[in-house]
Amino acid sequence: MTTLIDRRDFLAWGGAAALTLGGPPARARSLNARVLHALGPSDGSTPQGAPVPGPDGALVGCFMHGGSGGLGQVYRLAPDGHYSELVAMVYSDEHGFSASGEPSFDSSGALWACTAFGGLHQQGTLLRYTVSDGRQSWEPGSRRQQGPSFPLGRLAVVDDQLYGVGAMQRGRSGNIVFRTPLDQPWRARELASPSDAQLGSVVSGPLPLRDTLVGTTAGPIDQGGALYRVDLQGGPMQVLHTWRDAVPRGELLLGDDGWIWGVVSANRGHHRGQIWRCHPRRGILKVVHSFSGGEDGAFPCGGLARHPDGSLWGLTNGGGDLAMPRGTAYRIAPDGGYAVMHRFSEEDPCGYSPEGAPGVTADGCVVGCTGAGGAHGRGTLFALDY
Q1: Is 10 helix (H, G, I), strand (E, B) or coil?
Q2: d(CA 159, CA 155)
Q3: Which of 79, 86, 244, 246 has the fewest beta carbons closer than 10 A?
Q4: What is the pLDDT of residues 164-206, one digit of tens each?
Q5: Residue 230 bridge partners (DSSP)
Q6: Is 18 helix (H, G, I), strand (E, B) or coil?
Q7: How far apart are CA 341 and CA 151, in angstroms?
Q8: Are 177 and 213 in contact (CB under 8 A)?
Q9: Do 333 and 355 form a contact (C-beta atoms < 8 A)?
Q10: Which pTM was predicted?
Q11: Number of helices (H), then strands (E), in the chain
């Protein structure tokens, strides 16, 4: 399997080739890294976000490609490492295919996720799955003249409402932040349009913060992106921060400090990705770590995950081992200290070139996905025992 690097990162790789940041190199702590499942021909590929703990303690995740149907998969990874397919995606006018966001769970334990394509209009669906009901799919806003299409990112569940973003809208141009009742997913309505506010295309799903939602966008190539806020009931969008060159990646996370945490891609000549935190009201943004492309990693490939000890974990697609830079797993301590916890290489049984974001089990095990290497050459689902 080939791991793709965003064009912005490719340009930054060359532009920052001579960059060296100050400070001591990040040393990797010796952790027990183990393979949970070696991805094979009938398994998924291209993870969407992170594997998420389900009601039964198992991790559940989404792949955009692959699976037994060839067009995406929802999988379950049991605590003992057993891997199984919950939803096999095939080309269909009824159900969607090509999962386009990590899963979420409502208070009843039902799983929700987005698909990028499929449905009656071939513009994506909202997917619901339970053991008793199996898979159900709806086109968001299908009973309205205008509604979201090509939904992506993580869906947010707030009380009896489901919040999400669509890359486009039916009936008019532009993207959309939408809301729909959990019991009537086809009734999605617009809350705001980032493109109408000149903020570019949507990147992350909405993160709920009390009575507001926050999310990220990306402009055209080399034009950065933005962090925005909008009321749960809709209305004008407030821009909390903009990036000139670097582009937000992955989903957002609300830290224990009450700040929003996230990552951005490389910025030519300055850094090879950054971890940042932003105050949700005042819009004050602070850079926690700038990746140099050396031992500390390069090109963060997804958002962050919260560990039970209060630390945050993430993955990079590059950097790490200086002789064979194939990505890292890193940890941010509660005091803000940065450390590399594992460096991947082509000899690593866990594979190399991580993709997506890590998940964390209840007992503190960090789980992620690599896009290449491993027993079958297609990457693995791996665990870091911490």
Answers
A1: helix
A2: 13
A3: 244
A4: 999 887 767 778 999 999 999 998 989 998 888 888 889 999 9
A5: 213
A6: coil
A7: 34
A8: yes
A9: no
A10: 0.88
A11: 1, 32
